[in-house]
Amino acid sequence: MHGAVAERVFPGGAVGVGKVGGLRRAQAYGNYTYEGGPSCSTRSVWDAASLTKVMATVPAAMKLWEDGLLDLDATVATYLVEFAQNGKEGITVRQLLSHTAGLRAWYPFYHMNLRTKQDILKFVMADAPAHPVGRDPVYSDLSMLVMGHLVERIAGKSLGEFAKEHVFHPIGMTSTGFRCVGEGNEDPDVVPTEVDNTFRNRLLWGEVHDPTAYLFGGCAGNAGLFTSVLDTMKFAEVMLREGYAEETGRQLFQPKTIRTFTEPQTARGTLYPFALGWDTKLRFSALRRCPGGTRMSLSAYGHTGFTGTSIWIDPKHMAYVCVLTNSVHPSAEAPTGARICDIRPALGDIAMMMLVGRENLMKTERQKHRQKLLDEARLGAGREATSISWLEVEESGEEDITTQTEELCSMYGLTFRLPSDEASSQEESGLLDEPQGEDENLSAEASTPAHVARSPEESWGQSSTEGGAFGTTTINTRLKEKRGGQLSKLRDVSLLAFIAVWSLVT
User: Fold this and answer.
1) DSSP string of 349-410?
2) Which of 96, 410, 421, 481 has the CB geometry, 3.0–4.6 Å to 385, for a possible disulfide?
3) DSSP helix/strand/coil, 348
4) In this predicted model, what pLDDT tens digit does every residue of 66-105 receive, in sequence order?
């Protein structure tokens, strides 16, 4: 993250990672703009962009479905009569949410002289499908725009009001909500996004970046939500805890509801299926890198946002990775900002290493790719660096760990350096003390840096722009093994290699 700020991928960002029952850590980086200004913190509020779909619109639909007010297999026209036009009569709510309704991805409404919510909705309701209905999914902002309107029609109130009452407040997400257009521009708590030269002709600071959500007044089913990294982490934990909000002690959703909305919609053999509103790890093949990284299980689900945001949740490993940035600053067309597509999976891979542990991930990889592992192990140094990472081959010593780590760095365009001899000698001399009194709690599956706080008041993380769990400061890398009181040099080398990669990426 520090490197990304220096290379102008984004001026600022925040990362939150966690494992239910284990480590939770948030870290902020950089400033609001490249010109300086406020430093980002874990309480800074970001334009979540399309995370709105899964953090507001989908949870609202979940609540209505759980209360018996919404039928996923009913036609959209059951709730929005005006939708039954031009071949859309049979489209179901499930198809809207799974992006199989055939609706167009988006329209430049402002340039079509459609400037109000009413005019835009009237146009969308009359529009014909652009793709086959019920077939392979085509990601569509219009589908979620309609879904947000459908929620409002059933609930009898705005999406923002309903989500605040039934989702954000019960979870304890105090920094999350929609911002009405013209309300609180240049808010010091909100991180600015792009300098809009299209029709607003100003720096977007405290107002929604998405042009359609802006024309909707700031609140739409596809975009408009603002949130902090701490709130995003709370939301992710509710999803992993089967609807239970630990901070408030509230049960928001039943486990069945969580499963229903996060399972890939593969009933009709759909290729690359979405879940209901959520993207899925299952959609990404070896040729299409998942924004959540390669280390999450196939049951993982998540979403990205155009402003440089993402949330990915792995129910198998009970872990999550949240990334909030303003990579569209100062312009969404800047080539450096596009590198967020590389930063997200890199952070996901390394976060999963830290959260889940090397051994657990190795078991998962062996189960999924046993034959592949054997083939690549035989190939040895002759294999292509872009085809594997150091997690995919059984470690057999320091030399292999170094080689494999170099390959992981190569995948992300990084330069790998082993820790210096000086650092190693300091470690051996005891300058990097190993933790005292925690031997029984250390394991390959849950090894974490000794300095990471686990107290309740620190468990949601602290802001910082230097060091920390995602920084480059020296951290304890030693893990004691119960083998006659001897430390395992092999495991130390593995952790040192991991720390080196993490430091380079961040």
Assistant:
1) HHHHHHHH-HHHHHHHHHHHHHHHHHHHHHHGGGS-GGG--GGGS---SHHHHHHHHHHHHH
2) 410
3) helix
4) 999 999 999 999 999 999 999 999 999 999 999 999 999 9
